[in-house]
Amino acid sequence: MATNFLVHEKIWFDKFKYDDAERKFYEQMNGPVTGSSRQSSGPGASSGPSGDHSELVTRIASLEVENQSLRGVVQDLQQAIAKLEARLGVLEKSSPAHRATAPQTQHVSPMRQAEPPTRKAAAAEDDEDDDIDLFGSDEEDDKEAVRLREERLRQYAEKKAKKPALVAKSSILLDVKPWDDETDMAQLEACVRSVQLDGLTWGGSKLVPVGYGIRKLQIQCVVEDDKVGTDLLEEEITKFEEHVQSVDIAAFNKI
Question: Which residues pair with 251 in a beta bridge?
Answer without folding.
Answer: 173
